[in-house]
Write a structure and sequence with these properties.
single chain, 214 residues, binds fe (ii) ion
Length: 214
């Protein structure tokens, strides 16, 4: 059924369903398997496992935020094509969410306890960005993906050498985040002002500091 033919109530229920799937663990069947070359679970000591779990919890939270941002932008976008593109991007990001969730479970850990809060805050930010203009909204996506790529590369450098499993997952996510960035730029994403970029970076750092532990 085409989205255009859905009623407002249908859209509302679909939105609630997507929001709940972003915040409730194991509610998304992944469309792609973990991007790993074998099924061996690396052996980590307690300190290493805790550190990797902290990093993966940050990355899982980043994916929850990506869901919130894309859903918020789709909610307020004025242009039907942009709305569809944001829904499509959110769907593509679901695999990343599931991969991080899976690795966290393998490490005997859990997503951030503030997951619902991260989602709601990101949805609000996305809705504001979407309401400003298509160019700003796409520029916001491009900048977000660039910052996500930076922290993925930082995390890859922090992983214990034997944890090739986490490394392969994060490396595949990084490739795809950079692709999302390029698509947003190709579709007209505008360069954001330094003050907006710094504010985004500050918020991302606050999220990372919290999600690592909680
Ligand atoms: Fe992602
Ligand atoms: Fe992405």
């Amino acid at each position: 059924m085409a989205l255009r033919s859905l009623s407002k109530m249908d859209h509302l229920l679909l939105g609630v369903d997507k929001g709940l799937r972003a915040i409730v663990p194991r509610s998304n069947p992944s469309t792609r398997p973990l991007p790993v070359s074998n099924d061996t679970i690396p052996e980590l000591n307690i300190t290493e496992a805790r550190h990797v779990a902290g990093l993966m919890r940050i990355n899982h939270t980043g994916e929850v935020c990506a869901q919130g941002l894309y859903h918020g932008q789709a909610f307020s976008a004025k242009d039907h094509d942009v709305k569809q593109a944001m829904h499509q991007s959110a769907q593509e990001e679901v695999d990343h969410l599931v991969w991080c969730e899976t690795r966290l479970a393998e490490l005997g850990s859990h997503p951030s306890i503030f997951t619902p809060l991260w989602y709601v805050m990101s949805f609000g930010l996305g809705a504001v960005a979407g309401a400003i203009s298509n160019e700003f909204s796409l520029g916001f996506v491009a900048e977000t993906e660039a910052q996500v790529s930076e922290h993925l590369q930082d995390h890859i450098g922090q992983l214990p050498v034997q944890d090739t499993r986490s490394k392969e997952i994060l490396a595949q996510m990084d490739i795809e985040e950079l692709h999302h960035r390029q698509v947003a730029l190709d579709n007209g994403g505008a360069a954001l002002s330094p003050s907006v970029r710094h504010t985004m970076r500050w918020m991302a750092n606050a999220m990372k500091a919290t999600a690592y532990h909680l």
